[in-house]
Write a structure and sequence with these properties.
With 171 residues, the protein is mostly beta strands. Helix content is 8%, strand content 45%.
Length: 171
């Protein structure tokens, strides 16, 4: 896969320099904060630029990282606000039936009787369960709860999701 086709996942956001030796305070945007510490290369920006990690640790719910060659707070100050990314292929392997958001967004949603509803455009995190926002071919929005009684099958190879609509869920 060429660099132009490489997929990246956002795992953090640079908040500010930490101390005076080039460390950065990172807001963790991952369910696997400890895995973030294991990466020797992280990527910033679009297009993604590789940064070699010199050291990394967790501190009070944040990650503290230092990149090779960035040895002062002034050197890293320009990185404030950058999103910290990993290559999608380096992401933690999920259990059967679990998916990353980037795998779900863009799937075509069909009903059990083969009626095409539209494409998943966004995932809304509600706390209780996620809700998939589906855009119909006519441009309307349909909201589908991401629960087992509704989501019957996810086929990443076919780029589709099969759902069983609950009474009154749409129209």
């Amino acid at each position: 896969m060429s660099d132009a086709q490489e997929q990246y996942l956002v795992v953090g956001e640079i908040l500010k320099p930490w101390g005076f030796r080039g460390d950065l305070k990172i807001k963790i945007l991952s369910d696997y904060p400890n895995r973030l510490l294991k990466h020797k290369t992280l990527y910033l920006g679009v297009p993604a630029r590789a940064y070699q990690v010199e050291r990394a640790r967790l501190h009070s719910g944040y990650a503290l990282l230092k990149f090779v060659g960035y040895d002062t707070d002034a050197a890293v100050a320009k990185l404030r606000g950058e999103l910290v990314q990993i290559r999608a292929q380096d992401a933690a392997k999920l259990k059967k039936g679990q998916y990353y958001h980037h795998q779900i967004i863009g799937l075509t949603v069909v009903t059990a009787d083969a009626q095409t509803l539209g494409v998943i455009e966004q995932i809304l995190e509600t706390g209780a369960n996620d809700v998939y926002l589906i855009r119909t071919p006519e441009g309307k929005e349909i909201l589908i709860p991401a629960i087992k009684s509704v989501i019957k099958k996810i086929d990443l190879a076919a780029h589709s999701m099969t759902v069983e609509l609950l009474p009154g869920l749409i129209d």
